[in-house]
Amino acid sequence: MFKLLFRTGVLAAAVVVPMVFFSVSDIWAGAKKVVSSLTGTADTSEAATSTADILPVTSTTPLEGPEVRDFGEVFRFDVTTAWVMSRWARVSTGMAQLQLQGYRVPLVTGTSKDDLAGALTYYFGPEQRVRKITFNGTTGDATRLVQLLMTRYGFRRRVANDSGLFVYEAPHREGGVRSVLRIRPTAVVKANQPYQRFHLDLLLEQPEKG
After folding, report:
1. Quick check: 97 and 123 in contact, CB under 8 A?
2. 136 forms bridges with which residues in the sheet?
3. Longest dimension (CA), the chain
C-alpha cells in the first residue's frame, strides 16, 4: 500500500504536467487541470505486430503504467501503438510533428533514487515504426539511465561549457549528433525530495542500421 501511495504521489508531482507541456519548468504546475485533459480517447485500431509483449489494460492498471525493473523495457524501438495503448491507462496523442505522430505517457519506473519520473513520448513514422523517443522528467541519480544509453545506444560524455550541465551524446556516423541526454541539477535540491535532484531531457533517435 505504501509503495502504491508513493508512486501515485510522485506521479501527481512530477509526471502529469509533462503529459501536455514540453518545458521542464512546467513540470510542477497545473496538475489538476492536466488530469482533466487526459480523459480524451485515443485511436486503438493499430494492428501491427511487435516482439514486445502486449499487456492488457484493466481498471487496476496505474496511470503511470506497470513498474519498470529494466529501463530497456521502455527505451526501445520495437514497440507498436497497440503496445503503448495496452501498457498505460491514459495516452495523450496530441504531439504530432512533421511526418511523425507522438504518443505520450506518464512514467514512474519505481521508488529508488535512480528511478525516473516524467513524461515519455514515442514518435511513430508513416510505416508505424518508432522513429524517436523523448523523455522529460526527474531522478535522484541518473547513473542507471546513463549506463543503459552508453551500453545499448553508444552514448558518450561530452564536456559542456556550462559547469552545471552534464551532456551525453550518440554521434552520427556521418557527423553531427542524433541523440542527446541533458542532465541538470534542480534549482533547489531538498533533502526531503531525493527523487527530484536532477532534471532530465532525453532525445533518442532510432539507431543507425548495422
Report:
1. yes
2. 119, 201
3. 51
